[in-house]
Write a structure and sequence with these properties.
Layout (H helix, E strand, L loop, with lengths): L2 E9 L6 E8 L2 E8 H8 L7 H6 L1 H13 L9 E3 L1 H5 L2
Parallel strand pairs: 3-4
Antiparallel strand pairs: 1-2, 2-3
Length: about 90
């Protein structure tokens, strides 16, 4: 299963305190995200400005998102959300 990632990323304070980015699998777009708590715990992100930490660790975050997609660990709404515990797994 090939997972490709777009160049987009966004942070919406109103949408679950998550930095969002997109993946494409079999021509289907999947919204992926990483919680602010995970960014703060593992990458030193600031809660009010998490994008710099996301950008500095984008490759690792995308690797974890791809793993969660392959494991079919989707949320009820079809998104993938990385939490702190997901970053502890190899």
């Amino acid at each position: 299963m090939d997972v490709e990632f777009g160049a987009d990323e966004w942070f919406d304070h109103q949408r679950r305190k998550i930095v969002w980015f997109s993946a494409v699998v079999d021509e289907k777009c999947i919204d992926c995200g990483i919680s602010i708590e995970a960014l703060a715990d593992h990458f030193g992100a600031f809660h009010d400005n998490p994008l710099p930490a996301f950008r500095n660790h984008r490759e690792r975050i995308r690797e974890v998102a791809a793993r969660l997609i392959r494991e079919r660990r989707f949320e009820d709404d079809g998104t993938i959300v990385i939490r702190s515990a997901d970053l502890l797994q190899h």
